[in-house]
Write a structure and sequence with these properties.
- With 256 residues, the protein is α/β, with parallel strands linked by helices.
- Helices cover 40% and strands 25% of the residues.
- The protein contains ten helices and ten strands.
- Strands 6-7-8-3-9-10 form a six-stranded mixed beta sheet, sandwiched between helices. Strands 2-1-4-5 form a four-stranded antiparallel beta sheet, with helices on one face.
- Helix 4 packs across helix 5 and helix 5 packs across helix 6.
- The longest helix is centred in the last third of the chain and has 18 residues.
- The mean pLDDT is 95.
- Bound molecules: adenosine-5'-diphosphate and magnesium ion (MG).
- The site of magnesium ion (MG) has 2 residues, from helix 1.
- The site of adenosine-5'-diphosphate has 11 residues, from strand 2 and helix 1.
Length: 256
């Protein structure tokens, strides 16, 4: 099977600091790749570099698009990159305020992405928005409410609906459960797990929470100081960690 995404030797510097150091991996269709590591290890920088939110210094990111063309994201003109991000890709932010438009209704937040992909029929857009509210367990009668009247967990579910409505092929998530209470996290994780399965999503999931990757990720990369120190199948890495840093991460989350 062809990878959807190939990341080859990606490096990103902030001045003298190397935030990502020669990172390479492939993402295959239907795969959830977890990236863990403590704060400052370069996880968000890696994700932002792949999405093109920041420009990286070295290496390449190659994406195999819907039409089976290989696209070099580093040299892709900005308008085409933006269009890709609105259609074939999605980016879930930790803070739903960064991923939603707070000044328009829940329905409009979902509908906007459909307008981006060329849908124009108001009735169809509203019907699809209602369907997606259902998918993410938000009551239909909230469709005309603004997101700031929603709880944190509900806002995060709305963000998922807004992104998934265009059926993106790759979803990048940066600490999607990070800002939520534990009980709210559990519900969101359950929902994410079922959406990933039913939609056969390919996901890069950044988190500092081992519980999250255990539940969702097929494969795992462990980052420390901008480098990948260990990678493999999630269960293998977590049950039999080879690198001292991974061992320390795993031990820190074991309940005595
Ligand atoms: P993580 O997401 O794993 O917590 P980050 O990617 O946010 O890590 O940060 C990696 C390193 O890069 C950190 O040392 C951080 O201080 C630094 N860094 C991140 N963003 C910037 C920036 N815009 N300017 C300068 N340094 C940054
Ligand atoms: Mg981060």
């Amino acid at each position: 099977m062809q990878p959807l995404l190939r990341v080859n030797n990606l490096s990103k510097d902030y001045g003298a600091l190397r935030a990502c150091d020669r990172i390479s991996f492939n993402l295959y269709p239907g795969q959830v790749l977890g990236i863990i590591g403590e704060s400052g290890s370069g996880k968000s920088t890696l994700l932002a570099s792949i999405a093109g939110h920041v420009s990286f210094d070295d290496g390449e990111v190659l994406y195999c698009n819907r039409d089976n063309n290989l696209i070099n994201l580093r040299t892709l003109p900005e308008p085409r990159r933006r269009q890709l991000m609105k259609t074939e890709w999605g980016f879930v932010r930790q803070n739903p305020r960064d991923g939603l438009r707070m000044t328009v209704t829940a329905g409009a937040n979902i509908g906007e992405r459909l307008l981006d992909v060329g849908q124009r029929h108001y009735g169809n857009i509203r019907t699809e928005a209602l369907q997606w509210l259902n998918e993410v367990e938000i009551p239909e009668n909230r469709i005309d409410n603004f997101p700031n009247t929603f709880s944190g967990g509900m806002q995060q579910r709305l963000q998922l609906a807004r992104i998934l409505v265009t059926r993106p092929r790759i979803v990048l998530m940066d600490e999607p459960t990070g800002g939520l209470d534990v009980s709210v996290q559990a519900r969101l994780l359950d929902l994410m797990r079922s959406l990933v399965r039913t939609l056969d999503l390919s996901v890069i999931l950044v988190t500092h929470d081992i519980g999250v990757v255990r539940l969702l990720a097929h494969r795992l990369m462990v980052m420390q100081n901008g480098q990948v120190v260990e990678a493999g199948l999630t269960d293998q890495v977590l049950d039999d960690p080879q690198h001292p840093y991974t061992q320390q991460l795993v031990n820190a989350t074991l309940v005595p």
